[in-house]
Amino acid sequence: MTLKTGDVKAKDRRYVWHHLTPYGEKMVVTEAEGCWVTDSEGNRYLDGMAGLWCVNVGYGRKEMAEAAYEQLKTMPYYPLTQSHLPAIRLAEKLNEWLGGEYAVFFSNSGSEANEAAFKIARQYHRQNGESDRYKFISRYRAYHGNSMGSLAATGQAQRKYRYEPLGPGFIHVRPPDSYRRPEGRSVEEFNRDCALAIEETILWEGRETVAGVIMEPAISGGGVIVPHPVYMEEVQRICREHGVLFIVDEVICGFGRSGQKFGHHNFNLRPDIVTMAKGLTSGYLPLSATAVRQEIYDRFKEQKEYQHFRHVNTFGGNPAACALALKNLEIMERERLPEQAERSGSRLEEDLLPLMEHPRVGDLRRFGFMLGIELVEEKAGKKPLAPDRVARVLAGCKSRGLLIGKNGDTVAGFNNVLTLSPPLSATDEDVEFIGNTLKQTMEALE
Ligand code: PMP
Q1: Is pLDDT at 306 greater than 80 in this prediction?
Q2: What is the pLDDT of residues 24-37, one digit of tens each?
Q3: pTM of this prediction?
Q4: What are the recorded GO MF terms, alphabetically (predicted)?
């Protein structure tokens, strides 16, 4: 369907305040199927970012729409101060996916899931008589959300500095960015160093003041920074040793993106709290969750009524969103999408490997079906490629029918990582198209 787009675009510019990106003419997406989106002018693009890293099962799944519709007809809303069947079923299913015993608190967005995690962690320590534990440690370059606590946990100056002061008590440490490790350190040594720096921070801050460490299994939005397994496993050991809760943000890495059901399944981990959103519904409806280990949840159940978790979320765990999420997980299981993600990611990586010879490509990183290509002025100095040239790559891909992302931190001078996070359902032809288009675009850059 081609629309008369002049009017639509003029109204869009006038009335819609867009997220994040500069004010100007936007693509108005009108239809989507599989990995492909169509705009109001009839142009088709392969969506190499699955929207905002979220449309894991791909577009156009009618059975998901039907699951939501059926639920809306039967019982469209009831708050989780009481309960409803879709929430119970989904929480049980998430336990199966997590492979452990977790109590699940539902919200609507990743930011809210992280806020709930911070509040649960602080209250948990108070109920254990450790009321000085209020600080959280996270990494520079990580993104954890847009609200005053989750943004405080975020380690990207560009998203924060106009809105400060944010929630107090958040401390940042160096991410395990192996590409920029000090000379003479192996990847494994450097990753261990980064983990031990967290232990040092806990001790310097006073271990009795630290409530939690929050991290993604691999930093996604900050430029696809994939840790060596020793890093994650050391961090978990350190958390356990110092009585600090280990919070894993699976908002992007969860639901098959990493090649496993959850990103942390790529390591030998059992987090205390797991936060999730995006791929939970593949973006079809808003829903997020904070899964908390039963032992921690038990400490809340034992308390007197006024000491319960005083946190409510009107729309959190909406029945239609839960019913749709269940269908989403059913599709992922039926089509074995986590396994397919690993296969497609490794094929795409192999296809892109020749790009490592390109003078502007410094590093190629992958976590399942999420890839980052770090662009530099020259390989030796690793100076980030100038923003206008990075923008040219994005525009070049778009003109060839491929939408990709770009992530990093403008303020810190790193906004030079091309990102790819396609729907996990991408066909072999889709994967081939992504590889070919990127290679052609990079060739044209020189
Ligand atoms: N955590 C991570 C790792 C994210 O990437 C995001 C969003 N990009 C969030 C949290 C926040 O999610 P939301 O935008 O749904 O609030």
Answers
A1: no
A2: 889 999 999 999 99
A3: 0.98
A4: pyridoxal phosphate binding; transaminase activity
Question: Where does 84-165 show beta strands of DSSP type E?
Answer: 102-107, 135-139
> Mind giving me the DSSP string for 148-187?
HHHHHH---GGGTTTT-S--S-EEEE----GGGPPTT--H
Query: 147: CA distance to ligand 1 center in Å?
Result: 10
Q: What is the pLDDT of residue 427?
A: 98
Give nearest CA residue, ligand 1 atom 12: 110
The residue whose CB lies within 8 Å of the most ligand 1 atoms, and thus the one to mutate among 49, 54, 143, is: 143
- Nearest in space to 35 (alpha carbons), one of 254, 353, 348: 348
135-168: pLDDT as tens digits: 999 999 999 999 999 999 999 999 999 999 999 9
Measured in angstroms, how far is the CA atom of residue 220 from the centroid of ligand 1?
Answer: 10
Q: What is the distance between the terminal CA atoms of the chain, rounded to a whole angstrom?
A: 37
Q: 251 CA distance to ligand 1 centroid (A)?
A: 6
Contact yes or no for 325/89 (Cβ under 8 A): no
The domain made up of 5-57+336-443 has a fold known as: Aspartate Aminotransferase, domain 1 (3.90.1150)
Please give the structure tokens belonging to residue 251: 């908002």
Sequence-distant (6+) residues with CB within 8 A of 13 are 23, 24, 25, 26
Number of helical (H) and strand (E) elements in the chain, helices listed first: 13, 15
Q: Where along the chain do its domains lie?
A: 5-57+336-443, 63-334
Q: Where are the beta strands (DSSP E) in 221-352?
A: 245-249, 273-276, 288-293
Domain formed by 63-334, architecture: 3-Layer(aba) Sandwich (3.40)
Burial zone of 407 (CB within 10 Å; 0-12 exposed, 13-18 middle, 19+ buried): buried
Ligand 1 pocket: which of 112, 248, 251 to mutate (most atoms within 8 A of CB): 251
- What was the ipTM of the complex prediction? 0.99
Contact in structure between 98 and 274 (CB atoms under 8 Å): yes
CB of 111 within 6 A of ligand 1: the answer is yes
